[in-house]
Structure formats: C-alpha cells, structure tokens
Amino acid sequence: MQKMPGTEGNRDVSAQQTIHVAGEWLSAASGATREIIDPADAKPFAIIAEGGTEDADAAIAAARKAFDEGPWPSTPVAERAALLRKVADLLVRDREEIGLLESRDAGKTLEEGRVDVDCVADAFRYFADLVIGEGAGRVVDAGSDDIHSVVVHEPIGVCSMITPWNYPLLQASWKIAPALAAGNTFVIKPSEVTPLTTVALIELLVEAGLPAGVANIVTGPGHTVGARLADHPDVDLVSFTGGLVSGTKVAQAAALGVKKVALELGGKNPNVVFADACATDEGFDTAVDQALNAAFIHSGQVCSAGGRLIIEESVRERFVAELVRRAEKIKLGRGTEDGVECGPLVSQQQREKTEMYVASALEEGAVLRCGGKRPEPSDVRPATGYFYEPTVLDQCHREMKVVREEVFGPVLSVETFRTEDEAVALANDTEYGLAGAVWTTDSGRARRMARRMRHGTIWINDFHPYLPQAEWGGFGKSGVGRELGPAGLAEYREAKHVYENLAPQPVRWFAG
C-alpha cells in the first residue's frame, strides 16, 4: 500500500483507506473519496475515504461487540495504563513526522505541530498515571460492621467522538486517552478538513497492541457520519468539540436516546489588562507580548483565543499602538518555513467568514488599526494560500457582532474600562464562558477577578497554558462536562454502588 502523502516512516496505510473498523483499514463502502487541501497553497495533497452512514454503522457495531464480548473492558488497569504509556512513547518516536503532518494539514507552524504532539503524549501519560494510582473503589460508611458498601467506577461503554479542525490531534487525544484508560471502546470522526493526524494516532494505537474493535475511525462529513454517531442507539456517550450550532444538533440527537453528552463549544474569551500591569517597561512588554499570543497564535483559530482585549482606559492608546506595531511585523507563510510566525486560515470558507466579521465591525463603528485584509501576493509565500493579516479593531463595544461571536480568525477587538466592576461586567458579558485572563500586579484584585469572572479557566498574568491534570471546559454556551483532570476521566465512567450485607436477616416489614 502507498504511504499517505506528507508522511514518512512506518505508516503505509493507503491514502484512500482511512476508515478503521474491527482492526481493518478500509475504503468507504460507497467508494467515495475526498481531497485534503493544504491551506498554505490551496492545493490538494492527500486523498481520504469519504465515509457515510453505512461505515458509521459498521464501526459502531465493531465497537459494541468489542465492548460486550472483547477483553478490553476487563483488562487489568495496569495493562491499560501500560498501553497508554506505549502510545506516548510512539508519539515521541514519531514527533517530527506527525508534527509535520499536523502543520501541513491544519496550516499551523511546524513548531506548533511539534508542541501538539508533546501535549498529546503528556495526556496519554497523565491518564495512565491517574488510573494506575486509583484504589479499588470508595468505601462508604453504612454505620454497621455487617455492611460493606463501596462505590466503584466502570466504563460507560461505546463512545462516539467528534473532533474539530483546529487542533485535530490534540482534541482527539483528550477524548481517546481517558476513554481507553477507563476501559471503553470508541468510534471517532475527525473533521473532514483535517483528519490525517487522527488517522496516524489510530495507527499508533494499533501498533501499541490495542485489541481489534476497540478503536475505530470513520473519516467523513458531519451531516452523515457525525449525525449517525450522535443518534445511534448502540452508542452510550457522545463527546463533541466544535461550534455551538453543530453542538446543539449533536445534543438534540443524543437526547432522543438519553445518552450521556460532553460538549466543548468554544468561547469568546476576555483578556483584561489593568494599568498597574503596565507600570514598568518589563510589565508593559510582557502584557503586550501575551496579548499578541492570546489573539494570533494559530491565526486565532483557537477555542480559547483571547480575541477580546479589555484594557484600562488610561493605558489604552499606548498599549494598542505598541500592539499594532508588533502585529504588523508578524511574518505570514507556510508553517514549515523558517521564520514564519503565523500560518494560513484552514480554508477559503474560514477566511471569508473572518472577512465578514471585520466588515461587520467596521460598519458598526470599529476603527481598523492594522490588518483587515488579505496580504499582497508579494508579501507572503505561497501567495495562493488562505492567509489573512493579523487585525486589530479599536473602539469596539459589546453590541458588535465581532465582540459577541466567535470569529476563529486573527482578529482582536479592543474595549476599554475605568473601574474593576466595569472590567468584570465586560468580561462576563458573553453567552460563552470558556476562558479568560487578568493582568495586574495587585494580588487582591487578581483573586477578586478570578472569583468573579464566569469562565472555566482563569489565567492570572498569563494566557493559553493548560495542564492535563486540570479540568478544561466552560460555563454557559461553552458547553457541558469537562475534559482533562479527574473529571475528564469521570466523563467516561459510570458510578456503581455495591452494597453487601454480611449478616442478612429477615426484615419483618410485613406481618405474613
């Protein structure tokens, strides 16, 4: 079989056999295929199977059989943990290859792709350590020596996983690692735009020795494959990461079968900067640098992107002027090229969506400080890619669409405040609640802001880092449930209370 374009090493899965069911790599039942586009030059570089409902049904049936009849759910925890660690080691081995594939598929820089692989390996190790460190259950004091009462946790069953295009490998690992650690089987549908590294990850699971049928993947569109994974009666849990509209449809479909649902639906994340954080040259430099990082890493295609800069009025002009100066120097280009700091948007559709938001903001009174257009062909290589200049929109207000809705592009809106209460009100004035940051040298203020901001993650004097041992998820329309941390493992388990009477006697409730 031929190698998948863009890969090297030991992968030899046919470019058109990207569906994995019951231990076999397959083409789509219909024979349909899809071209994968390199967003840096807008040219196809791979061909995948375009699966459909029939393929999804076969994958779910394989996962159901593997859970009900196979060895994985009853495999000792130590053995499951050992397999997860082996996968982490294989990721380290193939770091350069997979990082390159992620860069080319999603358009991010090569260094971002490498970091993603490192984070995925960390997630597999974390969940391996978490399950191996657990006891045999939580003993419940029933108030009698004759009663032995314990709460144990068991795998939930067959898990459907639907992942987004912006961090395809990372988001897949946040679902796969805890699901396997808990003893589940699964079917995953990566985004049809960026599926290649998820296919590569399934290959590593197979290489690590995971039993056939435990891990299944169907590459295909959301309206067929994704819909079937959400409503199939043999699925016990649906885990979805993506947009609010699609997530709502997934939840509605899953609700008909009363399935457990975990949703991460993005955010509109505030980056609140107080004047005291900018009182020194070092503090000012750091806050500006981190505001750029918050807004423009991966061209702003991040669910936790700090796309709302909320800055104290007294330092707004100086801060924004320096922010604009640096934003204009960000080097765009193919992510594998030396010196490139920002890659393209993932698709023509995403670039057009970004242009729509910028046009809307200008119509509503925003002031364009930089960017706001596609780069000149002479300023970026390749010139045919889906590039868009880092954009700063000043004098924004909360009624603007660009302030309220998730852009998923390199666009930063600027709002101002005068008081701490006003800063809190602005930060919380969103239907989302995924993440937010506050910059201040006042520790009391920092703690107050962290307590009052209604977001699942609060960074103080930092932006974007996460820890696999800490829960990730949001308030409001950012979703339900949590990934990572102990709660991330709990999503893939059912709690069972086992109550044993060691000295049973008649109750004599009825006279009889």
UniProtKB/TrEMBL annotation:
Highest taxon in the source lineage: Bacteria
InterPro entries cross-referenced by the UniProt entry: Ald_DH/histidinol_DH, Ald_DH_C, Ald_DH_CS_CYS, Ald_DH_CS_GLU, Ald_DH_N, Aldehyde_DH_dom
GO molecular-function terms, A-Z: oxidoreductase activity, acting on the aldehyde or oxo group of donors, NAD or NADP as acceptor
SUPFAM superfamilies xrefs: ALDH-like
Pathway(s) the chain acts in: Amine and polyamine biosynthesis; betaine biosynthesis via choline pathway; betaine from betaine aldehyde: step 1/1
Protein keywords: NAD, Oxidoreductase
Family: Belongs to the aldehyde dehydrogenase family.
Name listed for the protein in its UniProt record: Putative Betaine aldehyde dehydrogenase
Phylogenetic classification of the source organism: Bacteria, Bacillati, Actinomycetota, Actinomycetes, Kitasatosporales
